[in-house]
Amino acid sequence: MAKNKSRVIFHVDMDHFFTAVEEREHPEYKGKPVVVGADPKDGKGRGVVSTCNYEARKYGIRSAMPIARAWRKCPQAVYLPVNYDLYKRVSSRIMDILRGFADKFEQWGLDEAFLGVSSRVQNFEEAKRLAREIKREIYEKEKLTCSIGIGPNKLVAKIASDFEKPDGLTAVEESDVKRFLSPLPVDKLLWVGKKTKQKLNALGIKTIGDLAKFDASVLIEKFGVIGRQLHLSAQGIDRSEVQERWEIKSMSRDTTFEEDTSDTEIILKTLNTLAEEVHKQLIKSNFNFKTVTIKIRYKNFETHTHSKTLPFLTDRLRDIQETASDLIQAYLQPNRKVRLIGVKLSNLVSSEKQKKLI
Predict the structure, then answer these.
(1) Which of 23, 55, 106, 112 is flagged as catalytic?
(2) Would the N or C end of the chain have less CB density within 10 A of its end CB?
(3) Domain limits, CATH 3.30.1490.100, in the chain
(4) Low-confidence winner among 191-200, 212-221, 255-264 (lowest mean pLDDT)
(5) Hey, CA dihedral for 158, 162, 165, 166, is it positive or negative?
(6) Which residues are 254's β-sheet partners?
(7) Residue 92: its pLDDT value, please?
(8) Which pLDDT score is estimated for 325?
(9) Is the dihedral of CA 35, 36, 37, 39 positive or negative?
């Protein structure tokens, strides 16, 4: 592709991935609202929704919503636990398909990826044909649909992939970027969450177009360095590269108790179980670690984390359990009930490059 041509980048996003896989495995769920996440326990569950299909979304159910609220909105939905091993196997096959179409490849989680395809297409019409080929191959091999956004950079491609879900295909050429972005709500930008949206709305900024026209110096004053980034993003400017993300920085497990508890024995027993789970992931991934972090959330949602870095690399379960147990002691109080605890391992190093501690 000529150097003066725009980059062509795809963002591929699987449609309601967890529930789509469940529907494929269980055809009887088709057409029904399906929710994957914690057990709702007849409206008394403590966890959250991981994902839900479009039928469930019609009832106002959304990802990260408390599972009890989801149940109140739609008690007749099919509620399923997260089957992570299944989703990971399916994801691995899909990512292998996508890599075969890309010059450069960058996976985001289990169900998203960026593909650099600039050398494979001469223009955006060819890009759309290539995208249709990707969609067709994924469906033929996995019986799952995806939505693809095509743009001159990662920012635009990601927003475009969400434009016509499910099973969508949206291409935005460089000359159309500002026209495409301008009418969209400001929270369509990747880094604009709920709180940032509220602050922007208070400044009269409702759309990406409003943000693009706003005084950059005021944004920097209000938001610091991120203000400049917001202003650039609103104009569709993103120079980040598509690159393979091999590095795993941490791995963790946490759990929300079915009932808030101050029982030290229950808390420590649960902590040991979480340590065992994260240890299995550590061994399976062939890593050693140096840092253990515990997380604890009380009944009133007050949350604390505490870390300790060991003087050596290790992959031993007892090092996780003993360190986690020591760290959490300061937070166990007879008069304070605990809602959630978690364990995280970081400072990871591949065990293939390090001798294991004997």
Answers:
(1) 112
(2) C
(3) 250-350
(4) 191-200
(5) positive
(6) 342
(7) 92
(8) 96
(9) positive
Q: Active site includes 276?
A: no
Task: Find all residues with CB under 8 Å of 155, minimum gap 6, and list them.
Answer: 189, 190, 233, 236, 237, 238, 240
327 three-state secondary structure: helix
Query: 66, 44 in Cβ contact below 8 A?
Result: no
Topology at the third CATH level for domain 250-350: Dna Ligase; domain 1 (3.30.1490)
Q: What percent of the chain has pLDDT above 90? A: 76
Whole-number pLDDT of residue 193: 82
| Gyration radius of the chain over CA positions | 23
Residue 355 confidence (pLDDT): 37
- What is the token pair recorded at 291? 């840092």
Ranges in the chain annotated CATH 1.10.150.20: 182-234
What is the per-residue pLDDT across 146-161, written as a single tens digit (0 to 9) for each? 999 999 999 999 999 9
Identify the pLDDT of residue 287. 85
CA–CA separation, 298 and 331 (whole Å): 9
**What distances in angstroms separate CA 137 from CA 21, 48, 92, 121, 249, one per listed residue?**
16, 33, 15, 18, 32
> pTM of the prediction?
0.69
φ, ψ of residue 313 to 5 degrees: the values are -85, 140
Q: Are strands 146-151 and 169-171 parallel, antiparallel or unpaired?
A: parallel
- Say if domain 182-234 classifies as CATH 3.40.50.300: no
Measuring CA to CA, which residue among 281, 20, 81, 54 is closest to residue 165?
54
Which is more confidently placed, 341 or 48? 341
Higher pLDDT pick, 85 / 33: 33
Within the chain, all domains assigned CATH 3.30.70.270 are found at 1-175
Give the pLDDT mean for 179-195. Answer: 90
State the CATH class of domain 1-175: alpha beta
- Give the residue carrying structure tokens 């529907």: 23
